Amino acid sequence: MTTAELVVLAFALAMDAVAVSLAEGLRLRRPPWRAALLMAAMFGLFQALMPVLGWVLAFWAADAVSEATPWIAFGLLAIIGGKMIKESFEDEDDHTTPVVTVRSVLPLAIATSIDAAAVGVTFGVLEVSVAPAVTLIGVVTFALSLGAVFIGARAGERLGRWATLVGGVILVGIGLRILLSHLLG
């Protein structure tokens, strides 16, 4: 796999994390740097770790794991997206600005990076040098996710409660896309 192919792959793998970062930015409206950096770091870390996991699983039990992962990703994103949709219909006074913690970002990071495990399987088949590849994937995901949080926040300030609704719909949509691509592909 060439460097150019790895760069394209890194951008493609980052897109789910970028979409979720945008949705989270919409919801947060004014995220502190700490929250944005935490989200971007978690997304970058998991996008880098999942191909390593896939690479290891390629030699062990790839078939067993590959059947469950789309369902897990769909479930996590549907629950979180559904919660955001519900929040969008509540009065602004009924809920405070969400707090971003490792615990709140972890399910999103896992759900958006599950497809990267399949890439790791192909790394094993194509004999790709894993360390530089996953480093590139992690760095690209981190940078794009960080920018997306702030872009989403700017839009969220203007859209108000509609931003939370849109963010929730985006998360549910990503979950459905992952599940349907598995079922139909």
Automatic annotation (TrEMBL):
Q: Name one Pfam family in it.
A: Mntp
What are the record keywords, sorted?
A: Cell membrane, Ion transport, Manganese, Membrane, Transmembrane, Transmembrane helix, Transport
The Swiss-Prot or TrEMBL record describes its family as follows:
Belongs to the MntP (TC 9.B.29) family.
Main location group: membrane
Q: Which gene encodes it?
A: mntP
Report the transmembrane regions from the record.
Answer: 6-23, 35-62, 68-85, 105-126, 132-153, 165-184
Q: Which PANTHER family match?
A: MANGANESE EFFLUX PUMP MNTP-RELATED
Q: Which GO terms describe its cellular component?
A: plasma membrane
| Name of the protein in question | Putative manganese efflux pump MntP
Regions annotated as coiled coil: none
The GO terms this record gives for MF are:
manganese ion transmembrane transporter activity
For membrane topology, the record states: Multi-pass membrane protein
What's this protein's function? Probably functions as a manganese efflux pump.
Out of the domains of life, which is the source?
A: Bacteria
In which compartments does the protein localize? Cell membrane
